[in-house]
Amino acid sequence: MSAETLPEWAPRVPPAKIQRLYELDALGIQDEELLDEVGYALLARCQSFIAANQATAGQAACAVCGRLIAHSKIKEELLHCPACGWELTWGAYFATIQHRQLSGAEPVLDLFGEYVTQFPAAASPAEKMLAIDTLIHGFHWYYKFGPTRPVAVNLIKGRLGEVVAFLDRLSLGPGSTPGIQETHTEWKEKLDSIKWIRKPKDS
Ligand SMILES: [Zn+2]
Questions:
Q1: Of 18, 37, 171, 190, which is most buried with the most CB atoms under 10 A?
Q2: Do 129 and 118 form a contact (C-beta atoms < 8 A)?
Q3: 64 CA distance to ligand 1 centroid (A)?
Q4: What predicted TM-score, i.e. pTM, was given to this entire model?
Q5: What percent of the chain has pLDDT over 70?
Q6: What tens digit of pLDDT does each residue of 88-144 get?
Q7: How far is the CA of 42 from the centre of ligand 1 (A)?
């Protein structure tokens, strides 16, 4: 093999597309094309997030054929795919995961896993909108403290403070899909319970 093939992870979704989705939704307009575009970009990101965590836990997917390769998390260890011959050290593999907002514990993996199942099964634009809305308003949880960090930073491009401010000012209106206002209110309450996050100015 001339060059090492590195694993690729789906990028975080640009906020502008999500903003447009909420602006239209607030006016009662459901743009199915945009819903699918945003929805499947989030789905790909969730799948990457789950696979990256699985790799970090000891089961790395081959970057060429996807076969799972068990490893012992030693940086020098050479991952070798018995199916296609692909090879890479665990250290080089792990370097593609670090500092890319691809790490989380069980509650987030469960939330993302649910979305991966639910979004493609959503029968109506409203169901799609609610699946997206529930996902991006999720939190990382720690059993002792409750919510610790919004998952939006793992799904949407930007720094934590920027992504929180972005979600805070998402358009809501009389035409918004029922349920969205409630989710937003709950999200703000949970956010307020996290002391160390920089809050948007007006909250
Ligand atoms: Zn392979």
A1: 18
A2: no
A3: 5
A4: 0.93
A5: 94
A6: 999 999 999 999 999 999 999 999 999 999 999 999 999 999 999 999 999 998 877
A7: 25
